[in-house]
Amino acid sequence: MTRGRPLPPLRVLLAAPRGFCAGVRRAIDAVEQALRRFGPPVFVRRAIVHNLAVVRSLEAKGAIFVEELSEVPDGAVVILSAHGVARHVEADGRNRGQRVFNAICPLVAKVHQGVVRHHQDGRRVILIGHEGHPETIGTLGQLPEGAAFVVDSAEAVQMLDLDPGTPVAYAVQTTYSADEAAAIVAAIEARFSDARGPRGSDICYATTNRQAAVRSLAPRVDAMIVAGEHFSSNACRLAEVASAFGCPSVQLVADASHVDWSLLTRSRIVAITSAASTPEATVEGIVAALAGRFDVQVEEVEHVAETVSFKPLKIH
């Protein structure tokens, strides 16, 4: 841009709520507490939450991330991620003499309790979720092998090798799209004569609130930037919701360095949101980058106020 030429105006709408949810804060706090209590290194099985900036920050403080507990020395301190794990994982750590703290999100733990209860009641469990996602793997790992099925579409429900009279129960990955889950639940209830659901919604409040905020902003803006990782389920769902509800240009970026500026050249109103595992500093960095190219007017648009908090994990 030519020096002295005025920057083009850009109205920036910050979706609220956005960013860290209570479960993410609790999990990150657990690692930091363990580092203060025991000193480094503290080992963490898999990404504590799905955000590389968070992982790198904790590594700088002395956390060591591993794939499996077999990589952790006997007697070491281990934190298990917010996504939840199969039952055998925690037991394996304790059998190795490791000091294991499970930072599972309480809302994911609630899903675990629900599928166990339904299984004990003699029902086949149908889990609405993404095959291979850590939360899905952890939920399936609460039950004997083969006791549950994973579906991600109404079509997948029709393909289940179950008689329509089979007593079934369904559960939902906490970060799943609320709209897509509703369609799959309808397919389950239409196919099976005896189907039960969870006590209340399995989709967490943060997922629901962030998707609702995006849904309301999408038709109002020329473009939307979703701050989050491509391997984050809730980040991907936010981008999908924005596109589905009318935003003509949507990009999911890990940070400001990944923004495709060519997609914003004709934009006059841009919305920004962030996944439940994305630190607010990432959003601030994107706003600062926008301010370097546009004459920005920033406005926060609150959809709903969040007051949820969880008790800290006891690290002792």
From TrEMBL:
Residues given in the record as [4Fe-4S] cluster binding sites: 21, 105, 204
Alphabetized Pfam families for the sequence: LYTB
Pathway terms, separated by semicolons: Isoprenoid biosynthesis; isopentenyl diphosphate biosynthesis via DXP pathway; isopentenyl diphosphate from 1-deoxy-D-xylulose 5-phosphate: step 6/6; Isoprenoid biosynthesis; dimethylallyl diphosphate biosynthesis; dimethylallyl diphosphate from (2E)-4-hydroxy-3-methylbutenyl diphosphate: step 1/1
Active-site residues (renumbered): 135
Residues that bind (2E)-4-hydroxy-3-methylbut-2-enyl diphosphate: 50, 83, 133, 174, 232-234, 277
Swiss-Prot/TrEMBL keywords: 4Fe-4S, Iron, Iron-sulfur, Isoprene biosynthesis, Metal-binding, Oxidoreductase
InterPro entries: LytB/IspH
GO MF term set: 4-hydroxy-3-methylbut-2-enyl diphosphate reductase activity
Catalytic activity: dimethylallyl diphosphate + 2 oxidized [2Fe-2S]-[ferredoxin] + H2O = (2E)-4-hydroxy-3-methylbut-2-enyl diphosphate + 2 reduced [2Fe-2S]-[ferredoxin] + 2 H(+); isopentenyl diphosphate + 2 oxidized [2Fe-2S]-[ferredoxin] + H2O = (2E)-4-hydroxy-3-methylbut-2-enyl diphosphate + 2 reduced [2Fe-2S]-[ferredoxin] + 2 H(+)
Top-level division of the source organism's lineage: Bacteria
Cofactor note: Binds 1 [4Fe-4S] cluster per subunit.
Residues reported to bind dimethylallyl diphosphate: 50, 83, 133, 232-234, 277
Name recorded for this polypeptide: 4-hydroxy-3-methylbut-2-enyl diphosphate reductase
Source organism of this protein record: Sphingosinicella rhizophila
